[in-house]
Amino acid sequence: MPFAFHRVLAASLLLCGTGSVLAVELYGGGGTTGFELGLSQPLADGVGLRVEGNTLSVTRDFNTSGVDYDAKLKFGNAGLYLDAFVAGSFRFSGGALIGSRKIHGTARSVGNTITLNGVTYTLGAGDTLDFDAKFPSVTPYLGIGWGHQAGSAGLGFYADLGVAIGKPDVKLSPSASLAAKVNSADLAAEQNNAQDKANDLRVFPVVKLGLRYRF
């Protein structure tokens, strides 16, 4: 996985070193941030610490006002969370996603043409327009959830619902041949359109389900 999970586990053990080894919980699952593995450790009555690693690689098509893109989302993060249990297994969670989250896309032509700022350009061999969006390397997280509380040993489940908050930075990269024929104002307008589209993900929904085992 892009963010080395053995490092996440080592950090978790160091952070949880003051707790009882018997209280350690292992968990794994998946959701909008990808596949995850993690460790949970109670710190005090009603308070717990979690450290996890997650990875995601999915394709997704999207469009701005005039351009369609074939894109891929790639996430490789560690998650660090503090859980506050308020009613049984129900909790409030806060923390951060730490690592790399990015989107790479390539504009899809229509009949060997591309429309930028309402102007249609004919594409030649080697003419390409790439889209790259990068999220901050540290993204705050707030949410609610169920599970991970200290309790009897055994198998159980967990669920999370929250948001990761961070505005992505977008860069458009035309090939040299395309840049030579495209008006700079049209390219700048598409840059703004692409940034506006990416801004829809500045509040990224986090939904996760999985199984956990407490020793």
Quick gist of this model?
By secondary structure, the chain is mainly beta.
The biggest sheet, with number of strands, parallel, antiparallel or mixed sense and barrel status, is: 8 strands, antiparallel, barrel
Number of helices: 3
Order of helices and strands: HEEEEEEEEEEEHHE
Question: What is the averaged pLDDT score?
Answer: 89
Side by side, the strands of the main sheet go 1-2-3-4-5-9-10-12
Unreliable residue runs: 1-6, 8-13, 15-21
Rg over alpha carbons = 22 Å
CATH class category label? Mainly Beta
In whole angstroms, the N-to-C terminal distance is: 26 Å
In the CATH classification, which architecture applies? Beta Barrel
Structural class: mainly beta
Q: What is the CATH third-level topology name?
A: Porin
- What amount of the residues lies in strands? over 45%
Please state the overall shape, judged from the principal axes of the Cα atoms: elongated
| Assembly category | single chain
Number of domains: 1
* Record field, number of beta strands: 12
Portion of residues within helices? 10-25%
